[in-house]
Structure formats: C-alpha cells, structure tokens
Amino acid sequence: MDAIVTSPPRIERDDRVRAVADVSGRPGLWFSVEERFADLIGDRADHVAIGLLMPAMKEGRALHIGGVMTDALLHSVNGDLQRLLRLIHPELHAIRVTADEVAAPPSPASGVSTGFSGGVDSFATLAEYLWADDVPVSLRVTHLLNNNVGAHGHGAEGDALWLARRAPLERAAAEFGLPFVTVDSNLDEHYPRIGFIQSVTMRNATVPHLLSAGVGRLHLASAIPFSYVRIDSSGEIARFDPFLVPLLSTTTVTVSSANSGLTRVQKTLSLIGRAESRYLDVCTNGDPRRTRNCSACSKCMRAMLTLEMAGHLQEFCPQTFDIEPYLNGRDAFIASVLSSDGPYPREIRDYAKEIGWHWRASDRRRGAVQKARDAVSRLVHEAASLPLARPLRRALHR
Ligand SMILES: [Zn+2]
Question: Mind giving me the DSSP string for 197-246?
C-alpha cells in the first residue's frame, strides 16, 4: 500500500492562525490558535507525526512526514512508541516513519502548559503546579490549553459543544491570571476508525509539539492513579500514560503525567477550601445549553458523594452543585458504588474504610441486589454468545 505523505506544515491566516500540512489522499491536517498566540507555533513537523501515527498504523501504511522532525522523536516513533501502542492495540501494524529532514532538538522554550477542562484532574494539576507554595519555577504553569481534538464529539455539533464549554473556563483562566490558549483542529477527522478514549493521549500530545516555540512542557493531567496503571484489553490508552508520555517527549518538549500518585478521591479532596473550585465542571451531561454541573450524572454524583463523606458538600452548594438532583439519585448511586469492581467505586469504598464512614443497612441491601442483578445480566450476555445458545433458545420457544 502507498505511504501516507504529508507536506511541510505552513501557516495560513483567516480569523485564526492555522498550521496546515497537506496529507496525501485525504484532507489536510490543521491546528489553529488565536492570532495573539501565533508566536507559540514552532516550525517543526513533530506534531504531524504524532497526530498521524495511530491512523497510519491502523491502515498499515508507511508515513512520510514533510518538513523537519526532531531526531529523538523519530527514533522513538520507529521504536518503543509503536511497540507500546501495539501492546494495548494489537490490531495496529508496525510501520516505517520517515521525514524530509531530521535535526537535533533545539533548546526548550520556557512556557509550561496544562490542559484546562475544569474537571477534577485539571484542578488537581493546578493545585500542585500553580497554587502550591513550593512549585519549582521550571514546573510552574504559565499557559492553560483547551484543545478541540475530539473530546467534544464530531463535526459542527462537537464544535458547538466546545464553544459552549470553554466560555466559563476562559473567565476562570482570566481570574487565575493565565493565558487561555484554545487550540482547534480537524485531527478527529483523521481518526475515523479509532475512538477518542483509545487515542486521547496521542491526540493531546500533538499540541505542546505544535506550540514548541513557546511551550517546553505539558503537564498531562492523569486520569488513572499508579495503582491502576496497566496494559489490559480495555483499550483505554490513558491507563498506560506513565509508560507512554516519555516516548512522546524530546529535550525540547517534555510531556509528563501529572498527579498519577493521587487517587480521584484525593484529587477531589484537594478542591476543598479553594475559592477557584467554583469553576469546577465535572459533568458529563452533553447538553450544549448546560451551563453548570447537572448534579445527577455519575461524575457529578461521584464528586458530590466524596465531598459529602468528607463533610464539605454544603460548601459547594449551590454555587457548584445542586443538592436536590443529588439526593434524588444518591441511593441508586451508592448501590452502584457498593456493587461495582471499577477503580473509582473501589477508591470510594477504600476512603469510607479509611475515615470510618458507615454505609446504612439499606445501602448495603441495595448494593447486594445491584450486584446480583449485574451478575445475572453478565451471565445472560455470556450465554447469548455461546454457539449452543441459538438452538437452545429455539427449543425453549417451541
Ligand atoms: Zn453531571
């Protein structure tokens, strides 16, 4: 099969400043920032290589990058980076990546960035790398990034959701005294057969390399604590971020996994007593008209239950959360916490033990019922996939 070939990235200007690379046989790959952040855009093509690596591996096609690539990154891209990606996604093919020109890494820029989505993970990163008294200067956050690389869904709908979600974050960034760099891209178009959760780390790692003229580091807020870091069949790429991000780094751009040592419960507790926490947005309700946390989805419930157990939920109501939807869904949510084997329910149960929190007898009963129901539906699901299931079903219905 033909190689995928890209042109050297070039700068175009419309209402934003766009770094565009043509891609053979498909739409060009572009990233854009506001004019005031144009100086951050570097002149290398490393972001193009990172962005297109998984799509090229999926198709089993060699990838030739136009322009200049950093030698160390090209080495990693042809070696352990692909090996690691293929451990978690065995369907990916090993491919050859080449570039027009290869050069040693230039000196790093002084900017330190982190993504800012308003969620618990990004607040915990700011608590450690912006607000703490003892942050080393070389690690102190100077730029907040907000990327549109697929997290908000596809097409015009995704763009609308991104716009709606970023408005309050822009106000928060102004209050924190940091520039808020919005990075738009059509990268998601290049991942038609690879899901967001399966590739999120690769997508977000493109951005610091794009901005390498002003940014030398990305604190990538970890979603998974060390104790759950593993290569498994879930396909969730973030589960092995601590292994992956060094392979996406050069001496010019360091990508590091921030707060991997903290559990989600510990990160939530770190919000207590912070005035900035009123900007917390943990909600997964996808309604673009939503302007605040719904206080009913599982992520809202999880944060609220943790804060309640710590005795601080009232401080977050009504500015950040509403108590009524929470109370309406609380019993069912606790049943799910007591019946699930997932990492977050387990963290909450561990926290309960640690602080001597007592679940009510009714909570335990509902949890046991839920667990039994889950087990039955798993059995039914497994039975349905057995080769004997169909004739058996037919016989039963005769
Ligand atoms: Zn919600």
Answer: HHHHHHHHHHHHHHTTTTEEEEEEE-SS-GGG----TT--GGGGHHHHGG
Ligand 1 centre from 100 Cα, in Å? Answer: 47
Q: How far apart are CA 23 and CA 44, in angstroms?
A: 16
End-to-end CA distance of the chain: 52
Could you read off the pLDDT of 103-148 as tens digits, one per residue?
Answer: 999 999 999 999 998 999 999 999 999 999 999 999 999 999 999 8
pTM for the full predicted model: 0.88
Query: How far does the centroid of ligand 1 lie from the alpha carbon of residue 58, in Å?
Result: 34
C-alpha 316 – ligand 1 centre gap (Å): 14
pLDDT tens column, 143-165: 999 998 877 666 777 777 777 77
Cα(163) to ligand 1 centroid in Å equals 18
How many angstroms separate the alpha carbon of residue 326 from the centre of ligand 1? 10
147 bridge partner residues: 183
Alpha-carbon span 173 to 178, nearest angstrom: 5
Identify which of 313, 208, 246 has the alpha carbon closest to the alpha carbon of residue 72: 246
Segment (H or E) for 17 = strand 17-23
Q: Are 178 and 216 in contact (CB under 8 A)?
A: no
* pLDDT band with cut points at 50, 70 and 90 for residue 391: low
Cα distances from 5 to residues 29, 57, 64, 187, 341, in angstroms, run 12, 14, 5, 16, 45
For residue 176, give the amino acid letter. Answer: F
Contact 45, 67 (CB under 8 A): yes
For CA atoms 84, 89, 95, 98, the dihedral sign is negative
Angstrom distance (rounded) from CA 377 to CA 361: 25
Scan for tokens 């766009």, then name that residue: 18
Among 300, 354, 125, 306, CA closest to 223 = 125
Across the beta sheet with 63-70, what order do the strands follow? 4-5, 63-70, 97-103
